[in-house]
UniProtKB/TrEMBL annotation:
Name of this protein: Uncharacterized protein
Amino acid sequence: MNKIKKFVFSEYFFKSATLLISLFALSISIHSCKNSNKSLENSTKSLKIAERENEPSLKIIQNLWTNQPFYELVNESNSKLDKIPSPSYLMFIPSKVYFVNNDGSRLSNLVLSPVSYDAITEQLVENTTKGSIVKSVLPKSFFAKKGIRDVIHGEFINVEDRFKIYVDTLPFLVIISDIEFQYNNKVNNVVLLSTPLENVEITEDDLNNIKEYTRDNAEKLEVKLTEENSNSYKIAQEKIETVVKEIFNSDKKANENDLKILGGKEGGYDFILKKINKQISYLDPMEAYDEQINQKESK
């Protein structure tokens, strides 16, 4: 009888031990499978990151807050281009024209003052296609610090009893560059819009619209440096204030050519000023103010 009990116990112990070993093995297998999936997921992510890092990443970096202001075309990726590109640039000083109604509501409009390409005092081409590639040096008149303290605030311009206007000029550049570059024996093209805040790609249509805006308004708005110690942003401010006063002079009726600086042309340059304005200030404080006013009036 004892032998039978021992046999039954031994058989039960053997089965239990076998079951525990099987469960333990299954647990290890599941854990290994999870680790394997996680490793595969991490490998996939790493591969995607590596692929992105291997592609050229071109940007225009502005550094206007030094005694020798400059901007440069850089390739931030680890990949090399087949050859050094030769980018073309359009440079603008951005200003905002604000319209203040008698009820306190405000509207704003972006104006871009073209900067003569002659303003570039030196262009340095590096012997590399990674990091800094082409550096464009500007005169001291473009020196500015980032921040609201350097914004040039204009005086109110009264337009009869209807509304008031004032102009603010922002102390930085909007740079647009059409860049053709060669990578892996293929010719590529990218159009970049650069501000100190970010770089974004824009379309060929956007580029053509801004070129048309420049052609129409360069005569009135182009910033040309006349003195070594002049301030480029003040020159832009004064030019725009002069044009605005001419447009809204009560003795003179504004025509289509006058309003082109505000995008007032048939087709409106496909609203390119509005598109660029979003890259300069994500939220226009005046538009936010108007929204608050409208919400109060609707209650």
